[in-house]
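pinned: reference chain
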Amino acid sequence: GSLADVLNAAQAVGSGPLSEMVLGKLAARTLAGLNYLHRERHQVHRDMKPGNILLNSRGEVKISDFGLSAELDSTKEMCATFIGTHAYMSPERLSGKPYSFASDIWSLGITLVECALGAYPYPAYSSSNYFVLLSQIINDAAPALSTDQFSPEFVDFVAQCVHKEPEHRPQAQQLLEH
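pinned: its structure tokens
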């Protein structure tokens, strides 16, 4: 099933968010896929979210749904189209600015925050208020995890993924070395 299925099942039985150890393994395996997609295929996924991260009982992780992915001619090229799941889009995408591989890193970071907290990090998501949600993602501070609940390394890792400025987000290869 998908990571979204796992999150829904965890919420249904009240087991809470996923553990940091599980999230670390999930992040590493998803980043390996993104690294391949970005470096070898020169593609931006453009719809990274829990529903597009598949898991099996052996702990294997697969990225799915490449229907919105875009191939770039170089690592410096940018996309400009507004497609994907808005709740997981990076601030630059929602602002209508050109974007590239860093937008997938943002989406992964938001996914990790959601899994770590057991709920989507922006409050407007639960009220289904589309315009308020867009405003929160663009204008509010990026979601952050607390070192009271998580290791400083994991908190830093997620903070790097959800840095508001795309040029400050590390590439997948760099995050694999974190």
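why pinned: The beta strands are 43-44, 53-55, 61-63, 70-71. The two ends are 28 Å apart (CA to CA).
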